[in-house]
Amino acid sequence: MQNLVGENLEDLVGVLLILVVVFIFLQLGTMVMLLAAVRKMGGNLDRMRGLVEQQGAPAIKELREVLGEVKDILRGARAATENLTGVTEAVRSQIRDVNSVIEETTNRARQQISRADEVVTHAIKRMEATSRLVQESILTPIGELSVLIRGLSSGLNALFGRKRNPVNEVHQDEEMFI
Questions:
Q1: What does the longest C-alpha to C-alpha distance in the chain come to?
Q2: 170 to 157, 166, 174, 176: CA distances (angstroms)
Q3: In this structure, is the dihedral angle defined by the CA atoms of residues 56, 59, 60 and 61, taken in order, positive or negative?
Q4: What is the pLDDT of residue 21?
């Protein structure tokens, strides 16, 4: 049973680690795409700078707003990374706690089973000894006494008993049978 629990925990840890790795790669992919987008924007910004200067202040204002949004996105991505790291550490800690609780419970269960086995074995031995003692001390002498009494009874019946009529015995046996 411990192997089954251990395998389940190992499978759970494996699945959780795979999920963490997948999320980290997804986040990394998102960050790379954001980085590529930001770099592409940077190149485009230089070209657009000349146009912006030509077109005026309203376009510069819009560009500043877009850059602010990109910064917000990057802050959100950074916060998500930190949260995912915190969650991963919390999961690892919980798994360690669960493993230690299961290990402790398993050890205690083994000890209790061992104690129960000792108690049952001791009780069985005492019951066998008691049975042997009853057989030797009580039942054997009673059986011998019973045989002796039957022998005496048969002997006394043979000496002092009346002879019965065999016809009456058969008739009585038939009445009892019916």
A1: 151
A2: 20, 6, 6, 10
A3: positive
A4: 95
